[in-house]
Specification:
CATH class of the largest domain in chain B: Alpha Beta
Shape of chain A: globular
CATH superfamily of the largest domain in chain B: HUPs
Largest sheet of chain B: 7 strands, parallel
CATH architecture of the largest domain in chain B: 3-Layer(aba) Sandwich
Radius of gyration of chain A: 21 Å
Structural class of chain B: alpha/beta
Distance between the termini of chain B: 50 Å
Helix content of chain A: 25-40%
CATH topology of the largest domain in chain B: Rossmann fold
Number of helices of chain A: 7
Helix content of chain B: 10-25%
Strand order of the largest sheet of chain A: 9-8-7-10-6-1-4-5-11
Strand content of chain A: 25-35%
Oligomer: heterodimer
Radius of gyration of chain B: 20 Å
Number of strands of chain A: 13
Order of helices and strands of chain A: EEEHEHEHEHEEEEHEHEEH
Distance between the termini of chain A: 58 Å
Number of domains of chain B: 2
Strand content of chain B: 25-35%
Number of helices of chain B: 8
Chain lengths: ~250, ~300
């Protein structure tokens, strides 16, 4: 079985986000970029499926500027077999990304697509569901456990009140939640090996990627001011009762 | 203009975040209809029709709607959506799973997790875990949005006198099957709708110690939440996690206990009205967002708090 793992290049999760002074977006110049953490989990899951013998080939794909190739190299160092880069400058929206991935799926014919449940930049959480709709495939979002057997996938999903299990026909789409696995670190020998693995390019479908939403401005969120320190529990209770009136 | 709100329910009652979505939909200035889908949606559609501001409650039931499978519900939503300018859903796992699928069927770019309606086509939403707020304008003929429940007041559950209309269910897509769920049963209010939230972090040091927070929550009629660190350490189940990748809460009172206040956690609770922090580390970042901070040993402070409240 062939597994496709789309990965996104985002501002590293440890970087403090700064809104640009002209309010057009957030500062990305000279900022450390990394693979979206949820996509890292998706790569790990795909690689584990290959190690178990369930998957035969793992293909990583990324849409975006030249820097995406570095992210793809990380996926290759984690154990993906080959990669596809779709060069694109500018902001891609999830619908456009899903349409691009539909073309790639048509070309590669994977039996399974695993991707992160959301990217930590736009926090949209849409791409997997939209790709599933465009392909007419089943979808298991917010997945924490995946079992594949006999042409179907049994997936445990993290829903608001607890856990839910769904069974999907393959091919299908799975979006990874935080607790699906703990991604490995790429070892130096594997990083060296990854440099020799093939990275192809696919042309971006420009019309599909034309933005549909207009970002009018990006603001700093309202900040909270630190309040006061209370010396003891009795004072705290008094404050909550008399001043804040919440108990 | 006309707005449709997908009502999430548990087979008996409406999930409160759906009522916030009704409020958000009304802010567009459009008249609002409700859509109730499920295995036996009839049980809930009458309550949906009574929600203040709902003009019409649409209802579609089918055995293959069990478990809210997006593969089976999205075609119905997409079909009904053609009669509307706005389709809103709560930004719960239900709405986040279903709405983007329906949007793709309609070739619409959806807008996730809106926190304000600026006009009929412009919305505000947090990006980068709430470290920035984007104002986004949609040119699509139908606007599909998921709504952050804590950002809008819940519409009143009475006062409406909407008409009920039955819809034909769309067929089983045959792509997926619902195979059951393990939903934690609790007497406490639902985390995102609770007036008081008591949340613990790694400082609690064990699952057993979380019982102390449950006791405090029960005394205040609140819910219990946790930081990612506490969830990863298996002190509490996953669905208790508050933060960027967990739940977003905005209660009247948030009590953070033994919790450092990582930026990802703060993203999920900073809109709470009053924040209390109890931590032994005076430099913990949680104190920067807390209205009342108590530096001290939580194992002394929490029992004392339970006693004095």
């Amino acid at each position: 079985m062939k597994v496709l793992v789309p990965v996104k290049r985002v501002i590293d999760y440890n970087v403090a986000i700064r809104v640009k002074s002209d309010k057009t977006g957030v500062e990305t110049a000279n900022v450390k970029m990394s693979m979206n953490p949820f996509d890292e989990i998706a790569v790990e899951e795909a690689v584990r499926l290959k190690e178990k013998g369930t998957a035969t080939e793992v293909i990583a794909a990324s849409l975006g500027p030249a820097g995406c190739v570095e992210i793809l190299r990380t996926a290759l160092a984690m154990g993906a077999d080959r990669a596809v880069h779709v060069p694109f400058e500018g902001e891609a929206e999830p619908l456009g990304v899903a349409k691009t991935l539909r073309l790639l799926v048509g070309k590669e014919k994977p039996d399974l697509v695993i991707l992160g449940k959301q990217a930590i930049d736009g926090d949209n959480g849409q791409t997997g569901q939209m790709l599933a709709a465009l392909l007419g495939w089943g979808q298991a979002t917010f997945a924490s456990k995946v079992e594949l057997a006999g042409g179907s996938a049994k997936v445990v999903r993290e829903v608001d009140g607890g856990l839910e299990t769904v069974e999907l026909k393959c091919p299908c789409i799975i979006t990874a939640d935080l607790r699906m696995n703990e991604p490995r670190y790429a070892t130096l020998p594997n990083i060296m090996k990854a440099k020799k693995k093939p990275v192809e390019t696919m042309e971006a479908p420009a019309a599909d990627l034309a933005p549909r939403l207009k970002v009018l401005k990006v603001d700093e969120p309202p900040t909270r001011k630190a309040g006061i320190k209370v010396p003891d529990v009795a004072t705290l209770v008094e404050k909550l009762r008399v001043e804040a009136k919440v108990i | 203009m006309r707005a449709l709100v997908m009502i999430e329910h548990d087979g008996k009652a409406i999930i409160p975040a759906s009522l916030s979505a009704v409020t958000a939909a009304a802010r567009t200035g459009a008249p609002v209809d409700a859509l109730v889908m499920g295995e036996a949606a009839e049980a809930v559609v009458a309550s949906a029709a009574q929600v203040a501001g709902v003009e019409k409650a649409l209802c579609a039931s089918a055995p293959h709607f069990a478990g809210n499978l997006a593969e089976n519900l999205a075609p119905l939503v997409a079909q009904v959506a053609k009669n509307y300018t706005h389709v809103f859903a709560p930004a719960t796992t239900f709405g986040r799973n279903l709405l983007p699928r329906a949007a793709a069927l309609l070739d619409v770019a959806p807008i996730s997790d809106i926190i304000a309606v600026e006009s009929a086509d412009t919305f505000r939403r947090p990006i980068y875990a709430g470290n920035a707020i984007a104002t986004v304008q949609s040119a699509d003929a139908i606007k599909l949005c998921t709504v952050r429940g804590t950002a809008f007041e819940a519409a009143a559950t009475t006062g409406g006198a909407g008409a009920v209309e039955k819809l034909e269910a769309t067929p089983d897509a045959g792509l997926s099957k619902y195979a059951g769920s393990e939903i934690a049963k609790s007497e406490r209010p639902e985390l995102t709708a609770a007036r008081v939230v008591v949340a613990g972090g790694r400082g609690l040091a064990s699952a057993d110690n979380f019982k102390m927070l449950e006791k405090l929550a029960d005394k205040l009629g609140g819910a219990v939440g946790a930081s990612r660190a506490a969830v990863d350490a298996n002190y509490v189940p996953n669905h208790c996690q508050i933060g960027q990748t967990g739940k977003v809460v905005a209660p009247a009172l948030y009590i953070a206990v033994g919790l450092s206040g990582a930026i990802q956690h703060v993203a999920g609770m900073k809109d709470s009205k009053v924040i209390v922090a109890i931590n032994k580390d005076p430099d913990a970042p949680i104190f920067q967002v807390a209205d009342y901070g108590l530096v001290g040993d939580l194992f002394q402070a929490v029992p004392e708090l339970i006693e004095k409240i």
